[in-house]
Design a protein that fits this description.
Structural class: alpha/beta
Radius of gyration: 17 Å
Number of helices: 9
CATH architecture: Alpha-Beta Barrel
Shape: globular
Number of domains: 1
Amino acid sequence: MTGAPGLDLPPVIGHRGAAASAPENTLAGMRMAQQLGARWVEFDVRLSADGRCIVLHDDSINRTSDGKGMAALLSFAALRERDAGAWFGKSFAGERIPSFEEVIELLAALGLGANVEIKPAAGQEEETARVAVALLRQYWPRHLPAPLVSSFASAALAASREAAPEIARGYLFDRLPADWRLRAESLGCTTIHCNQRHLDPGTARTVIEAGFPLLAYTVNAPMRARELFGWGLTSVFTDCPDRVIAALVDGGKSSPRDTGIHT
């Protein structure tokens, strides 16, 4: 493994848009991430009952909308009736659960790259991956950096590789397992993503020395971000990109340009 050719990963990636400042996985969240200086965003895709690819983290809509129910059992039209912003703040009332196509269109206008996490309902790993990468192939703008697809689900990564081998894949882990490299290489993954809570210098060194860019989630403490970059990590996912960007700029970089960040 010798890195991730074709990927232009920035050090700071907005998590679910900019989840500390706007409702997660919404168009408002993507706009907020761009306003806070992020060059890339991460968000989750899954399928509605009628096979539409939507941007939503949880299996249900209970936590992040005014509705209830499992997303996989609700039609796209039913999902669109729910308010996905008011729970976060009155100023976001009226935000909707977006389709994947809507998010891609907005990213094109904002100039944002993306890490698309495939977050399938149980039993829909392969179908979700196939639909998601088909949409990326059809709609991803050429002027944006090449996207990265990631997942915890090996079946989703395998389906993604089969359907769109040219789209880079990242393997998501909570805690890095002993056989991580075998699993990543068997699926042709180019990046490794880990829970920052379970990372230490030795673990980071193992991944990086094997030639894999290492990305950590979810890093909201600026000092922790600086520590992780000191270990050689490529990127961190954060709910508050502005705070982490400021920490990097203030932490010895001569300018935002040196961090690959724009402000």
